[in-house]
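Sample pair:
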Amino acid sequence: MAGSSQKSVVAAIAGNFVVTVLKFGAFLASGSGAMMSEAIHSLADTLNQSLLLLGLKRAARPADPTHPYGYGKEQYFWALVSAMGIFVFGCGVTVYHGIHQIMHPEVSRVTWLTWAVLGGAALLEGIVLFVAIQETRKARQARGVSWRVFLSKEGDPTLLAVLFEDAIAIFGVVVAAVGIWLSHALNEPRIDGVASVIIGLLLGALALLLAIRNKELLIGQSAPESINKTIWDTVAADPAVNVVGQVKTHVIASGKLAVDINLDMDAKAVMKKVLPQFKSLNADDKIRTEAEEFGEALVEQLGVEVDRLENDIREKVPGVAFIDIEED
């Protein structure tokens, strides 16, 4: 998953950087408000995707004593910062510029350069979007879920951010082209400003969706219900397990989960696996029965000791909410 995200992000940064230069050049040549909005949009995309790449790099650091679960969630932090950047610079500046154009309309200059830049931008954005779609398809197939579930619940937010930003970028080019054409065909420069506002509002909606998604992952979102059920069914089907009490999961990085399972082991089933190793205990039915009962009592007492140890820890450290004790 991380490899797919990084490939898409790098492709997006390279493509958007070239497009940004072209669009600012076209804006300087034409003075179009919609072209200015598109240039700001591409610049914001370039900067925000650079933050996404930073998040991927930092999240890949290995676990250490201060971060035993690793640094995976740092990816979501930088993705959240990126979403804020989209909202402020992509949405805020673009909408402001569009409203200014509506209130103070100025006729822009449209030349062959304007259309050439828009066409080139559409081509480059299309290539980047194609890469993002291909990598997203691979990630979805690896998860084995539908597009709806992947996009709404299970998808890597970094990969989805690139996918949606590129999709909006292509739509934005179309909106900008239509706005420029109509403003000149109808001799109404305010249409150019309306196109800018539309582009900005689309970016604002995307920023809010990405912010909500990353916020959920940062505060400790559980795995999807289908994954929780798979874990539960796997444990419950094991012959050494008597009762499954509770299964808790939470996402610690893209494609990585922490799992906490509360269960009651079947002591007799466990002892039946152990007894063949001690031939003397199998020589007599009474001895074998007592050995099985001893094993059951031992497992039950281990559970009591674990509960006692958990209570002692919570008494001395009241802030402990969850404890996962595993015998080595």
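The mean pLDDT is 81.
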